[in-house]
Design goal:
The chain is of the alpha+beta class. Helix content is about 60%, strand content about 15%.
Length: about 325
């Protein structure tokens, strides 16, 4: 900090050195001025200047150190002891800080209001969407029924994704960790996608060696919904393999499809928000949110999601559930 102060005051130091050099130069060219007296004056001046620098350093850097370390810019101590310039700086910073603080508070309030309004709208839309599903079920024209069921499912999944996206920042308040039956969760999600899968000729091959895991059933269902939706969306007539097993003392769940796969250069970015693809960049069906939200939801549950894929060979997503000691971190026990 002292070096920084000297750099800041280098104009003072240069002026002082110039004045001392001027005195010595005058003594050198003017015989009426004693060189010994001039050097003695320079020596005393140097001592006084060093003392002055040290005192000013202690006085001024106290203010700037407070400015550097202050978490609350309103907390300058001993404001009455500040110099006029320091007081002006402190007053200006305090004023702008208060303005920014009010702006942040107002923006936060507006965002909370918009979030609440959006959540309310989503819940309101669910009512006519449920009624629409009942109307679709009563249709006798099977071709029309399949098409409308598919479009209904698309709307339902988009609303569900939006709803959970707004809840994820606060999902730790909603966690309920318990022994969860994998089969019931998986079959529930498969049933939701059934009409879409029938339309595309996609089946499921499910083999669960381990059927129970400690997790939150609702959020696990959301994660599986994103992975299965992607698998169905980017696959043609084929089977999606769902397997559970054990690896390194942890239960894993694999979801493998035979779809178009993911290019190697895209793999590191598929969990980024809004990323779709570099190879299929013109694919308007992709939103770039499903995998991002899946990983965001998996993090509080200590579930690791890995992926292996190659173009034209499909993709395999692996969910690794936490060990017992990691589970204790989730529950806080």
């Amino acid at each position: 900090m002292f070096i920084t102060y000297l750099k800041e005051r280098r104009s003072w130091i240069l002026l002082f050195l110039l004045l001392q050099f001027l005195i010595i130069f005058i003594a050198y060219i003017d015989s009426a001025v004693s060189m010994e007296s001039a050097l003695y004056y320079v020596f005393l001046s140097a001592i006084i200047f060093v003392i002055f620098i040290l005192i000013r350093y202690q006085r001024e850097m106290k203010f700037y150190q407070e400015l550097k370390d202050a978490e609350d810019l309103l907390g300058f101590s001993d404001r009455e002891l500040l110099s006029p310039f320091e007081g002006m700086v402190a007053e200006s910073i305090t004023h702008h800080f208060e303005v920014l603080k009010k702006a942040v508070s107002e923006n936060g309030r507006r965002l909370d209001q918009e979030k609440d309004e959006l959540l309310s709208w989503i819940h309101e839309v669910k009512t006519p969407l449920t009624a629409l599903r009942l109307m679709i079920d009563r249709l006798e024209d099977q071709a029309l029924k399949k098409e409308m069921t598919y479009e209904w499912l698309r709307i339902h999944l988009l609303l569900d994704q939006q709803l959970h996206q707004k809840r994820i920042p606060f999902m730790e308040n909603d966690l309920y960790i318990e022994q969860t039956d994998l089969e019931s969760v998986i079959f529930g999600e498969v049933k939701t996608l059934q009409s879409w899968c029938i339309q595309k000729g996609i089946g499921f091959d499910i083999d669960l060696e381990y059927n129970e895991v400690m997790t939150d059933a609702k959020w696990l269902a959301f994660i599986l919904r994103q992975l299965l939706t992607n698998a169905v969306k980017y696959s043609d007539a084929s089977d999606i393999q769902i397997r559970s097993g054990e690896w390194n003392g942890q239960i894993i769940l694999e979801i493998a499809d035979e779809g178009r796969g993911i290019d190697s250069r895209d793999l590191p970015r598929i969990f980024e928000k809004g990323f779709t693809s570099t190879v299929h960049h013109q694919d308007h069906a992709a939103t770039g949110m499903g995998l991002y939200l899946a990983r965001k939801a998996a993090q509080p549950l200590k579930i690791r999601i890995d992926v292996e894929s190659a173009p034209g060979k499909g993709s395999t997503f692996t969910l690794t559930f936490p060990k017992s000691n990691e589970f204790l971190q989730i529950t806080g026990m």
